[in-house]
Write a structure and sequence with these properties.
single chain, Alpha-Beta Plaits, three-stranded antiparallel β-sheet, 12 helices, 28% helix, RNA binding, pseudouridine synthase activity, TRUD domain-containing protein, PsdUridine_synth_TruD, PsdUridine_synth_TruD_insert
Length: 417
Amino acid sequence: MADSELLQVADQLGEKRSCPADEEESKPSKKPKVDNDHGNGGPPRQQDEEEEEEPEGEASEEEEDGQTFADMMKHGLTELDVGILKYVSDHEGFSGILKERYSDFVVHEINKQGKTVHLDDLSIPADSEPNELDVLTEEQKKQLGELQLFKNKEGDVSIEVMDDTKEKRTLVHKAIKTQFPGLETKTEERDGHKFIVAYHAAGKKALAAPRKHFWPKNRGSFCHFVLYKENKDTMDAINVLSKFLRLRPNMFSYMGTKDKRAITVQEIAVLKITAERLAHLNKCLMNLKVGNFCYKNHPLKLGELQGNHFTVVIRNISGTDEQVHQAMSSLKQTGFINYYGMQRFGTTAVPTQNVGRAILRNDWNEVIDLILKPRPGAEKEFMVRCREEWAKTQDPEAALKKLPNKRCVEGMVLAQI
């Protein structure tokens, strides 16, 4: 990703970036290693070296759960535990930390045509700006915009229809729903005058089938766009877009899911939603941006991409310039052994392969125990209380009450017991 593009989009997002609390310099090991390597082929950690003390002070603001990645890995597996043992070359190497911040890992999708995907155009295609929808005054647009962003204390906006015809009311209804996604409208009569009232849609109605607005026959049925996201996985981003657009998530299609702990750029397609509606979301999205709109006659399919382009930052390097240059030259010329990455085995004290083994054996008591039992390592306080309640009472209802968010794995297991 070009530095200028990254800075430009980050500025548009308006996110306050802050550095994590200063950490102690990691001691170089006797043999080269890369700590916390989530990429395939990372060299193994050495078990015989002393563990570093956890840094004091507050965690980074970038970590939404209040813990650092090092905290999560402290009680987890090492490369040696899962058989990542060999190097492809015999140079000395160096050590460092990957993904200390989510912004250290930047992913650009490479599409079916071999083009690296960038978000560099926020404009709307000309054919998606119908003049007949320009029926709202600037004051009305301001009020509706504040309502959309929950800044209107009244909870709704009423627009009197001066030219009281069905055609005029239809245009106003359509203009509000098109230009201000997330708002619903209705017509009310007061003292002989008709008003169109805009308000926030909610509940199951918000997830109903998309409205059948007029769709030009010469326009492709799918709006393709580029999604830029920070510290959010692909499905979370899709769910946010679905909520604002009042769609089911399965109306969207994509070629692959991208990491949460990263800055990523990828193509998305959605059925019969205009670029104008999508573009309006940029006013209210957090850590998300959409653009590069175009219309096509087909959705996207999983696996259609050619690959991903990664820009990676390695921090806290302990090694000489010569060692770093030698390692980079070897990586460029020789490559690396394509092991399964450590993330495939989990980042907590309970390895995911142990859970998988119990599932294959149909040992469901063991599966439940592995998922719910107390474990060492950094976790949110409510999750610790949930595990303790389960270990103490074996009461799924009591343990579930300890979780504010029931959609996590532990919550879904408890809800089904």
